[in-house]
Backbone:
């Protein structure tokens, strides 16, 4: 079973690796795949904090925006030409997001659960306002242009695709490591009963803050790649509530606190959103249809896709094992009866 | 000086004085009962001893040192474990994962390593075996019955080899077989490992059969103390319970 799983994962990885070169029918689809990877990475990072601890942050657009502006302003400041060089700024974008996340997380995590969620929304709008009004730094609502990569249209998407894929794999690797570590177990204990966890020696304050900062690093890098890929950024499209809605929808839909949940959620949500916008955006039906899709998923799989399917699979296995036990008992009984009949 | 000592501790919630100059002493190696009518302050006393509530006045000492302002993690690390009236296990974690929460691990590198290395697994499984939950080790704790959750909570605090265990209604809401199992477990741990117990319980048969010494609380303070048989006949106790 384990070998089969490893084989399946390797096949999936191979498929993802060759997708933009061999499978994608056109650049629009590859663009969609890049947005999917960006959101999958952001949601996987977000899940390390919000999914594991149960503290729902609806303000990670702060770090998405900080990453985007770090990328744009650093390129501008150092006169980086378009090409591979701006990708080297990704660690800087992560660092800036992480440094901001320390005091912001410290403040926001003074309160719990719903109050925390509301605080994070407030932080996001504060940063959006700052981005509008600190014109000397951000150029306000005029936005900031990023350097244009010199690549031809045929291969334009490939560096973005593979760099984002690599970062997604890093985020998944980290998420897996955290989930199976003593630290991750502490985060899950915080989700279930924070005071009890504290009473048993889990340093809840530092556990939460570290996870919050780690999740901000990935949101920062997601914002930076997004900015470079799009080519121009504005306050309303980076410090954007829609970014938060997308990240949380992806994580909830896929399965909060699971490793694969954010990935599954992103693969469904991002392409579907873009498809619906292209096909039905004209009549403004796209949001209605997307809302209906979410309702159906949450009706059928209320805990999110991955945990609900895992639950159904476990239940099916348990039923099957019981049926096998019963049928084996029945056949044994029949054999005994047959033996008795022969004796008679 | 007693092993665990509460000296004239007071605690108020708004206008309600949950603890009113309450004093209590628990001798090392004893099983001490703490009884009293509902609302007499037993659970609040547990909360202030274990750092879940801060006292307004008074002092708490454990093994010669003041723990009055210590936080729950510090109290636990010092060797005082507790269970709750309404069990508090981690429902979405498996039984085994629950056990590992309490196993201490030092340093960042230690925290980043796997949560259940072999040696720690053995330690956790031994304790699960002691309380009879080994077969349920991979079940989410939410799937356990109420009594099994009490046993898990009990096993969980044994992980750090505490010197004192405070049990808040260990027999409450569980079937008679499990009540006997719980009593046997407490007696074994007391006799073989020398663990001191302070037990809050309404089941008088359980308390009287198990405890060496019983304290009675009423309106936030202790009104009687003594051997179970003597306490049972104490007029102040009868009045507190029956309002006679």
Residues:
């Amino acid at each position: 079973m384990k070998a089969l799983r490893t084989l399946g994962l390797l096949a999936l990885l191979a498929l993802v690796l060759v997708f933009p070169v061999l499978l994608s029918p056109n650049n629009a689809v590859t663009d969609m795949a890049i947005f999917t990877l960006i959101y999958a990475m952001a949601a996987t990072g977000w899940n390390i904090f919000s999914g594991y601890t149960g503290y729902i942050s609806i303000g990670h657009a702060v770090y998405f925006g900080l990453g985007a502006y770090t990328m744009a302003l650093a390129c501008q400041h150092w006169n980086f030409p378009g090409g591979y060089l701006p990708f080297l700024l990704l660690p800087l974008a992560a660092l800036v997001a992480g440094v901001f996340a320390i005091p912001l997380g410290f403040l926001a995590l003074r309160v719990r659960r719903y109050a925390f969620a509301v605080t994070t929304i407030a932080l996001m709008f504060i940063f959006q306002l700052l981005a509008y009004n600190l014109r000397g730094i951000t150029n306000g609502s005029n936005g900031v242009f990023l350097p244009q990569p010199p690549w031809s249209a045929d291969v334009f998407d490939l560096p973005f695709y593979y760099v984002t894929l690599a970062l997604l794999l890093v985020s998944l690797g980290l998420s897996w490591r955290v989930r199976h570590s003593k630290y991750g177990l502490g985060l899950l204990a915080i989700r279930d009963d924070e005071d009890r966890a504290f009473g048993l020696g889990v340093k809840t304050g530092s556990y939460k803050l570290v996870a919050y900062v780690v999740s901000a690093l990935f949101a920062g890098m997601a914002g930076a790649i997004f900015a470079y890929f799009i080519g121009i950024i504005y306050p309303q499209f980076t410090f954007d509530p829609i970014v938060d809605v997308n990240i949380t929808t992806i994580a909830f839909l896929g399965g909060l606190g699971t490793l694969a949940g954010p990935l599954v959620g992103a693969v469904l949500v991002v392409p579907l959103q873009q498809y619906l916008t292209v096909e039905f955006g004209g009549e403004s039906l796209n949001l209605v249809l997307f809302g209906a899709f979410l309702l159906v998923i949450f009706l059928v799989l209320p805990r999110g896709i991955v945990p609900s399917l895992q639950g159904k699979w476990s239940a099916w296995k348990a039923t099957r094992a019981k049926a096998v036990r019963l049928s084996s008992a029945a056949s044994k009984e029949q054999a005994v009866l047959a033996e008795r009949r022969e004796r008679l | 000086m007693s092993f665990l000592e509460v000296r004239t501790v007071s605690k108020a919630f708004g206008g309600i004085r949950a603890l009113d100059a309450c004093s209590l002493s628990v001798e090392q190696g004893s099983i001490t009962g703490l009884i009293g009518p509902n609302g007499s302050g037993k659970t609040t006393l547990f909360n202030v001893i274990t750092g879940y509530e801060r006292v307004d006045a008074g002092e708490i000492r454990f093994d010669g040192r003041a723990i009055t302002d210590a936080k729950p993690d510090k109290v636990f690390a010092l060797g005082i474990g507790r269970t709750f009236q309404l069990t508090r296990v981690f429902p979405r974690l498996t039984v085994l994962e629950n056990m590992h929460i309490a196993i201490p691990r030092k340093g960042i590198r230690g925290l980043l390593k796997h949560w259940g290395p072999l040696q720690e697994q053995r330690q956790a499984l031994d304790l699960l075996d002691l309380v009879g939950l080994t077969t349920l080790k991979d079940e989410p704790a939410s799937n356990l019955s109420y009594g099994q959750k009490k046993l898990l909570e009990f096993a969980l605090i044994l992980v750090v080899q505490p010197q004192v265990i405070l049990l808040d209604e260990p027999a409450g809401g569980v079937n008679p077989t499990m009540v006997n199992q719980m009593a046997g477990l407490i007696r074994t741990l007391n006799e073989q490992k020398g663990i001191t117990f302070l037990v809050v319980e309404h089941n008088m048969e359980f308390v009287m059969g198990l405890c060496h010494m019983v304290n009675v609380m009423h309106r936030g303070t202790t009104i009687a103390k003594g051997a179970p048989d003597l306490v049972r006949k104490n007029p102040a106790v009868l009045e507190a319970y029956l309002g006679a």
